[in-house]
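Appendix B. One record, verbatim.
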Amino acid sequence: MRGVVVLCGLAAVLWFVMFSPITAGHVPFWPIMTACALLLAAAGSCVDPVGMWRVFGVRWWHVPVGILAAAVLYVVFWVGHSLSVWLFAFADDQVRAVYARRPDTSGWGLAALLVCIGSCEEIFWRGFVQRRLAQRWGPCVGLTAATAVYALVHIWSGNLMLLAAAGICGLFWGAMLMRFGSVWPGLVSHALWDVMIFVLWPLG
């Protein structure tokens, strides 16, 4: 449990550097984000290699399930974006602020970074954090606690839309881990959804 606390604390510090208005303008966001995701995934795997191995069981149907889940989540966000812009005056500006972080690089270059980041985040947040919390407190509490931490590390941005998006995604992918017992469906979904939402069909 100490490893979970330490690495979640490290994640909070790293996300502060990336998202806080105090520091965000002074660091290259995408290289730092990629490095942080890789670091956390590697650290979680080193802390509990045997446990991590157990959630890496793969079946052929994990890929189509992940693809379908990415499509479903994209539709959820498309509907949610339309409703939030209609309901809240601040929503459109905050969504545009998220997209303002896109680098001046090719779509394929950004897509490659997103696949790496999304995959590593699933390995750390679901494969390590959620699994360890579920072992201690049960699957439902583990899912809730891991989702809360995953969302709250984004609080440094001061962007309510980003915070809500992280909470929804964390709950969605966490439920996939709880349902299938493997990180692969959520990993495929996360990586593909990132590419859909940021490169193929952006919402802002």
